[in-house]
Amino acid sequence: MSGRHAVPRKRRSGPKDWGWQLRHAIDTAEGLDRELSLSPEELAGARRAEEAGLPIRVTPYYLGLSDRTDPRCPIRLQCVPRAEESVEVPGDLADPLGEEAHEVAPNLVQRYPDRALLLATDRCAVYCRFCTRSRMVGDGGGVVSLERLGPAFAYLAAHPEVRDVILSGGDPLTMSTDRLVRVVARLREVPSVETIRLATRTPVTLPQRITGELVRALKPHHPLWVMTHFNHPRELSPEAERACKRLVDSGFPVMNQTVLLRGVNDEAATLEALFRGLVRWRVRPYYLLQADPVRGTGHLRTAVGRGIAIMEQLQGRLSGIALPKLIVDTPRGMGKVPIGPDYVVSRQPGVTRLRTHRGVEVDYVDPPHGS
Ligand SMILES: *Cc1c(COP(=O)(O)O)cnc(C)c1O
Ligand code: SF4
């Protein structure tokens, strides 16, 4: 080291650079049509999205995972708008989780005593067509200033029962490293905040974001958990693998939340391949989420029974570490409910009859002292 000067390396900018990916993101109907030659349903959806609702944004990287000719491609279904986005079906809500009603300070949502959600930006690398926060993401607000977040930090300081803060948005990893670290550091000044989770889809949509510089800047603020969002095995690219491994190697537990989407991943074999792939990267399949009833997403949602049937097929076929919980986040923000196949056949005093994944029924006899 001695005698060597730190010569700043010339910054290259190209597809491997996350800034380049964001600067070259496709955000118009015309741009999508040029890349994918859109179907009439897609073109109508994209034209509408330019004017109303959730805007269009897709990184060149994520577009590169898609099939250029097949509108049923699971990547296209996630990022290319369709005409059905203008259709409202019974049960649809603009704010399905009642986040606005549960806002305890500007940009801070609390629905559980020990956890809170801090919304730090409205930007994402890719706008997912099924987004629960489509009412607000990409609406022009951009990065939320530290001043505006002041009351949220004050609330957390005054409520030591909140031990777990989920930094979300939008996608907080679309902010600059400096900016992100400043928000994390402010959270760390609140002694009662034990864990911080970074909710980000960048390992999926912009894996170039997970740089050595980023993990070095965040590491001093551990315990930091990363909550990511892979939905299809096609998203398990070498770039995504590098991003996840870099996070895990740097001590970030990485949890994955998959949203169940019709035509994208509502088959047991597809989810099995996804969950096995994630576990190979040391990423834990955490939740399989029933899609929230966001206005204009009826075409992408499944019936609750579909998820339960898939869980039934996966139970016993997949290791416990590869099997997420199936969750319905109940409308109007009443909280998350785990659901699944019912394995309890009957309950008599002292005896519970269970059905196993092999289809056998077995009795469990309680100990004589009861309760
Ligand atoms: C989903 C959610 C959480 C986190 O729930 P976990 O089950 O702990 O992952 C916390 N707060 C809000 C407002 C949420 O919507
Ligand atoms: S990355 Fe998350 S917040 Fe952003 S559009 Fe997708 S689902 Fe919504």
TrEMBL record:
PROSITE patterns: RADICAL_SAM. The keyword Cell division does not apply. Residues 110-322 form the Radical SAM core domain. One of its GO terms (molecular function) is metal ion binding. [4Fe-4S] cluster binds at C124, C128, C131. The modification N6-(pyridoxal phosphate)lysine is found at K336. Its cofactor is pyridoxal 5'-phosphate; [4Fe-4S] cluster. Gene3D superfamilies: 6.10.140.1170, Aldolase class I (3.20.20.70). Keywords: 4Fe-4S, Iron, Iron-sulfur, Isomerase, Metal-binding, Pyridoxal phosphate, S-adenosyl-L-methionine. InterPro entries: Aldolase_TIM, LAM_C_dom, Lys_aminomutase/Glu_NH3_mut, rSAM, rSAM_sf. Belongs to the radical SAM superfamily. KamA family. This is Lysine 2,3-aminomutase. It comes from Chondromyces apiculatus DSM 436. The lineage of its organism: Bacteria, Pseudomonadati, Myxococcota, Polyangia, Polyangiales.
